[in-house]
Structure formats: C-alpha cells, structure tokens
Amino acid sequence: MHIYAFGSICRGDISLGSDIDLLAIVESYESRIDPDKFSIYSYKRIQEIWQEGNPFAWHLSLESRLLFSSDKLDYLKVLESPEKYKNCVQDCEKFFLLFREAHASIITGSNSRVFDLSTVFLSIRNIATCFSLGVMEQPDFSRNSALCLGVNSIPIALDSYYVLERARILCTRGYGKTITDDEIVTTIRRLNEVHEWMHKLVEKAKKYE
C-alpha cells in the first residue's frame, strides 16, 4: 500500500477553503482506509490512468508527496511521467457542456441557484486545468487555475468569480459566507462572459490537436 498527499497542501497554497487531499493505492479492499477521507485507487487503475495521460495522473505526478510506503519505494516516482495528455478537446467540450447545463438550470430554476453556481465554478476550474495541461507548457491544477492562464484567463469580474468559488465551497464543504441575492443576480448576469470564454478555449484547444 502507498499513501500520498496531493493538491494544495503540496503546492503550498492552502487557504480557508482548502482541504487535505489524500490518495491510497491498494492491491485490494483495505478496511483501514476510510473512503470518506481518501481517494482510493488500485495499482491497476493507477497504471491505466498513467497510460491514458489522464489529467489526474499528471496532477499526482507533479503535485503529490509520499506519506507511507509498504515496500519503502515511491510508487508514483517509479512509474515516471504519465503519457502525453491527448483528450484536451474532448474534456474541454465536456466541461463546456456542464457549464451550459448549469446555466440553463439557473434560467429555468430547476435547482438551487447556489448549487448551480457551484457547478459553474466546477466547470470553470476543470476546463481551465485541462486547457493548461493540453495547450500551455505549465499545467495548473489549483482551484483558481482559470485566473492563471495569462492572456487566456477568465475575463469575468473578480467579485463574481469569487461568488462562484464561495458557492462551490458552500455546496461541497457546508461552510462559508452566505451569498446574497444581489450577489447571485449580478453573477448570473455575467455568465454570458463565461460562455464566450469557454467557447474560445475550446476553439484554441482544437488548434493544438
């Protein structure tokens, strides 16, 4: 068994909304590992995502720290670098679709608006991460990857961006400052800017296929 920390704690950018991401790699079912606290993967699945060039494989390769090794080896280091990431366009289109679905739900009132804004933030973060990995030389796996793409960074006003981030933290961790109706309305009005930004990222990603 191998246990790793990964994410913000390894990047050194922990904030109030951060948690500690833990990975357990196991041969088979392991009763000592709590699935509520660990991302649990088999060795076979880790090898598969390495061969796929999966973004999570690159995340682990670049931003993880070994905490425990049953064989005294750093298993992920032994695997070396993952294969080249080849699904940038497909993944960017997937998260663009997720955004459009959340935006449509906001308009129709199908779900809680805070929940839908949380999903919008998830789509923003993930499309930015995939774009940075597939198109840029330096992948960015941070929560605010959309702000770190240089000329390709999200153009939405920062106050609305941070409303989206707060919505994500409220929905996933259950704490944070309550989002006011005025903040929600202002942010929703700016979602067309996000739509245009995502469309441009997808089109740029296609040029790098």
Automatic annotation (TrEMBL):
GO terms for molecular function: nucleotidyltransferase activity. Gene3D superfamilies: Beta Polymerase, domain 2. Coiled coil: none annotated. Residues 3-67 form the Polymerase nucleotidyl transferase domain. InterPro entries: NT_sf, Polymerase_NTP_transf_dom. This is Nucleotidyltransferase domain-containing protein. It comes from Mojavia pulchra JT2-VF2.
